[in-house]
Design a protein that fits this description.
Layout: H1 15-42, H2 47-55, H3 74-85, H4 89-108, H5 111-122, E1 128-131, E2 147-150, E3 156-167, E4 174-180, E5 189-195, E6 201-203, E7 217-228, E8 232-233, H6 239-275, E9 277-278, E10 281-282, H7 287-316, H8 321-346, H9 358-366
Parallel strand pairs: 1-4
Antiparallel strand pairs: 2-3, 3-7, 4-5, 5-8, 6-7, 9-10
Helix pairs in contact: 1-3, 3-4, 3-6, 3-7, 4-5, 4-6, 6-7, 6-8, 6-9, 7-8, 8-9
């Protein structure tokens, strides 16, 4: 499974980035791809494999190295997530969410919070989940209704509410929770770090999903959950700003996962066309299908460049970074899903069978067009 020359993902990378890419791709080929079909079919959350990825430095890729992060850039992270997602977009997507959570703690936490939590998160001894979405607030995140009120002794927040569609729900050890500590609207939202074993935390049923089956998804329910006041990340009322800054990076990460999945499907389609024969010749000899493959490669290359441009904007803290992240996310997830769909079509009836891989990528990438805004 070599990279397609016409859509070479190493073009424009530094020597260091090519090394990160090679390490990630080798791990993906040898430790993820051979098992991804089983993880999907049996809904296995491969925790030990994720810990091995953390051993490579991928548990806190763009987290400072003070408490165990790797200290790389957002462009570096996009390259790594793309390479890993060529094997399993679902597992890589969870890893990207965990990275986002670790970054939140490292960026907005105080010295004591960072020292307490970042080492375990970066090493993935502790797994994490991001809790923003609720049953009644998806895209309208500022209308969230989960509340956190000070206890009478002032030592705790009493957290009540429900978060929906939480990746890693029930398995993660740490939950980054956006909740309402003040009035309506975005300025009334704060961010709390909640541990799984805090009293009052419970979980809904494991959702049965179309894709993303190698990571569990559950509702996270808070019923008079007592959260120490020292577990607030940032200042009171800063939660919405933290959530939106995190999602800039989250959009890049999910877009990179989409590009990786699309790249894998492009290669599978090309390889299939070289061996599948109809009308006495291989599919690769039909000009229409050659044009189709070329269009797929064009869209893939454009999507990749949009992702890396947006990541570079975040690294440079450019004023328009949020716009570029949103554009890259929208374009790349749509284009990548189309590439997977086209690959499945090129396989004909075989593409509809679970014995062949394009359908797994298609199912995993479909949700990328929905989540992360």
């Amino acid at each position: 499974r070599k990279f397609t020359g016409a859509a070479d993902p190493s073009i424009g990378l530094t020597d260091d980035q090519r090394e990160f890419q090679e390490v990630a791709k080798n791990f993906a080929d040898n430790e993820m791809f051979p098992h991804a079909e089983k993880w999907d079919g049996e809904q296995i959350f491969p925790k030990e494999v994720l810990k091995e990825l953390a051993n490579l430095g991928f548990g806190g890729i763009y987290v400072s190295d003070e408490f165990g992060g790797t200290g790389l850039t957002r462009v570096d992270a996009a390259v790594i997530f793309e390479a890993l997602a060529t094997a399993c977009p679902s597992t890589t997507a969870y890893l990207s969410i965990h990275n986002m959570c670790t970054w939140i703690v490292d960026t907005f936490g105080n010295a004591q919070q960072r020292e307490k939590y970042v080492p375990g998160l970066a090493s993935m001894e502790k797994f994490s989940s991001y809790c923003l979405t609720e049953p009644g607030s998806g895209s309208d995140a500022a209308s969230l209704s989960t509340t956190a009120k000070k206890s009478e002794d002032g030592k705790h927040f009493v957290l009540n509410g429900e978060k929906a569609f939480i990746s890693g729900g029930g398995e993660s050890d740490v939950y980054i929770v956006m909740c309402r500590t003040g009035g309506p609207g975005p300025k009334g939202i704060s961010c709390l770090l909640v541990e799984k074993d805090f009293p009052g935390v419970s979980f809904g049923k494991k959702e049965n999903k179309l894709g993303w089956n190698s990571q569990p998804t559950r509702a996270v329910v808070f019923s008079d959950c007592l959260v120490p006041v020292e577990n607030m990340l940032g200042n009171e009322g800063e939660g919405f700003r933290i959530a939106m800054k995190a999602l800039d990076g989250g959009r890049i990460n999910i877009a990179a996962c989409s590009v990786g999945g699309a790249h894998a499907c492009l290669e599978m389609a090309r390889d299939h066309m070289l061996v599948r024969k109809q009308f006495g010749q291989t599919l690769s000899n039909f000009q229409y299908l050659q044009f189709k493959l070329a269009d797929m490669a064009i869209d893939l290359t454009a999507a990749r460049q949009m992702v890396r441009t947006a990541a570079a904007k975040v690294d440079a803290n450019d004023a328009d970074k949020a716009v570029y992240c949103a554009m890259a996310k929208r374009f790349s997830t749509d284009a990548s899903y189309r590439i997977c769909d086209d690959a499945l079509q090129l396989f004909g009836g075989y593409g509809y069978l679970k014995d062949y891989h394009p359908q797994r990528y298609l199912r995993d990438l479909r949700v990328h067009q929905i989540l992360e805004g």
